[in-house]
Write a structure and sequence with these properties.
The chain is an all-alpha fold and 323 residues long. The protein has helices at 18-28, 30-40, 42-66, 76-86, 94-106, 122-133, 135-138, 158-162, 174-179, 191-203, 210-229, 236-241, 245-252, 263-283, 290-298, 301-307. Helix 6 packs across helix 15. It is globular, with a radius of gyration of 20 Å.
């Protein structure tokens, strides 16, 4: 019997190759991108275009220098650019998009050997780099400027408002959070658009449904507990639809390369991300916690794959008797 050994992602349906999988994710992001353009206008198109172009060029240059086949036909590089751009505020300087894209591909992906070899989600590696390097350009104050392209952007982001009990009463209602009429990163404002794309990915089996379900459960249950204890000024329902929790659950955590391959591992991975998000939102100085939660759980994926190996059909192999 011929056995092929290759790096992830792995497919049970050979008709669903890497390119088709990446295209599915891009298609699922169309509602989110459309709302982003509606709310943020030209800024959204600008950041997405710069990140996609820079990610693609960085990957081509790296492959050329490394003597690898110079191609971005698998669409993984452009997809990294789209996700990175959607995680940035509309007001981010151009150099942030460029440097974040270069770091995402070079350090987050290619330095490990390319697609299928990376331990961490490349887009989040790039996002973490620019967040820590240019905190002033990506902090809470960076989202609000005079002359903003939409009235909704003249106020702080919902999670920033929720940090202070005195301002928590200004937290937007459900409808603005669903349609996207709130401030935030380019791709996190409309929960409805994210859910439409996320359900599409799960139906197509491009994303493992256990991961986003685990993220939601892992976040909502601690959020309800923290609400009872008075640690948070908003409800668990508000936490679910505000910020990038849903975006991270469906489009970031489900990356097939940096997430577990076993069913039990996917559940643990998703729940762990959800719990970490709520811990970071509640007790850290950051109003959002998706990026760091995903990267932290990415680091334990090899252990989850090892610890959650399914029992073979028929039971485990019997041990050889001692001689």
């Amino acid at each position: 019997m011929n056995v092929s050994v290759a790096s992830s992602p792995h497919f049970s349906n050979m008709k669903q190759g890497t390119r088709q999988m990446m295209v599915d994710v891009i298609l699922a992001l169309i509602p989110t991108i459309a709302v982003s353009v509606w709310i943020f206008g030209w800024y959204s198109i600008l950041h997405i275009g710069i990140c996609v172009l820079t990610c693609s060029l960085t990957e081509l240059v790296w492959k050329k220098l490394a003597g690898m086949p110079a191609s971005v036909s698998d669409a993984s590089g452009p997809l990294t650019g789209v996700i990175l751009a959607l995680s940035l505020p509309w007001s981010a300087p151009i150099y942030v998009s460029v440097l974040g894209s270069i770091f995402a591909i070079a350090i987050g992906k290619m330095i490990f050997g390319g697609l299928g070899m990376n331990l961490f989600n490349p887009a989040m590696v790039g996002r973490a780099f620019v967040m820590l390097s240019f905190a002033g350009a990506l902090g809470a104050s960076a989202y609000v400027y005079d002359g903003a392209p939409a009235d909704a952007l003249t106020q702080a982001t919902p999670l920033t408002v929720a940090r202070d009990v005195a301002t928590a009463q200004e937290f937007p209602g459900l409808w603005p959070l669903l349609i996207g009429k709130t401030n935030g990163s380019l791709g996190e404002t409309s929960s409805l658009a994210i859910l439409l794309g996320g359900i599409f990915l799960c139906v197509r089996r491009t994303a493992a449904w256990q991961i986003p379900t685990g993220v939601v459960l892992g976040a909502v249950i601690p959020a309800a507990f923290f609400e009872l204890l008075g640690f948070t000024a908003i409800t668990a329902f508000d936490h679910l639809f505000a910020g990038s929790l849903l975006f991270g659950a469906f489009f970031i955590a489900t990356d097939p390369v940096s997430s577990p391959i076993t069913p039990k591992g996917k559940w643990i991975f998703g729940v762990g991300i959800g719990i970490l998000i709520m811990i970071l939102r509640t007790f850290s100085s950051y109003p959002e916690g998706v990026m760091f939660a995903v990267l932290l759980m990415n680091s334990v994926v090899p252990l989850l794959n090892r610890w959650t190996i399914p029992t073979p059909v028929g039971g485990s192999f019997p041990e050889k008797p001692n001689a």
